[in-house]
Amino acid sequence: MGERKGVNKYYPPDFNPEKHGSLNRYHNSHPLRERARKLSQGILVIRFEMPYNIWCDGCKNHIGMGVRYNAEKKKVGNYYTTPIYRFRMKCHLCVNYIEMQTDPANCDYVIVSGAQRKEERWDMAANEQVLTTEHEKKQRLEADAMFRLEHGEADRSALKKALPTLSHIQEAQSAWKDDFALNSMLRRRFRPTRTSRNS
Ligand SMILES: [Zn+2]
């Protein structure tokens, strides 16, 4: 006597024996089933977008930022309370697998295996432009503060009153500096490349 499974005998309306063959194969072809099929191992299949340009170790091809893959997503640890996720995907041009994971400390992704990150170099011309603008803004602010102190607020009590303002200005300046550093970092990261392979 053949073994019988008493479960899962419902045939859904779109079940097509020619296309799906068996009920099992039908279920495995279901998108959500497919995405969640390794959930017991903590793996979910997601759409992963390449965060920067890389070189595949397998076929040595260049893979551009923004190329999308079906990737297995898995939690591999924590950085303080932030989960660290690892993504595993097959190169669309060869059989090589690429593994990347989040790097919460640096708000970045790192390559674990299977690829090399294409080095992005700092565009000095654009950088200088930013520095100049930022520098001018700062100078104007300092000049304004000095102007106010030297003219119209010359007496001691006025100067005293102005002191908190000065420290505010200093705070604002250091905040700008932080903003600038952040902007620089983002620009560096997302600037279209004019670079060559660094091997
Ligand atoms: Zn490849």
From TrEMBL:
Xref: InterPro entries: Saf4/Yju2 (IPR007590)
Organism for this UniProt entry: Marmota marmota marmota (Alpine marmot)
Single GO BP term: mRNA splicing, via spliceosome
Location of region: Disordered: 1-26
Function: May be involved in mRNA splicing.
UniProt name for this protein: Probable splicing factor YJU2B
Domain of life of the native organism: Eukaryota
Family: Belongs to the CWC16 family.
GO cellular component, one term: post-mRNA release spliceosomal complex
One Pfam assignment: Saf4_Yju2
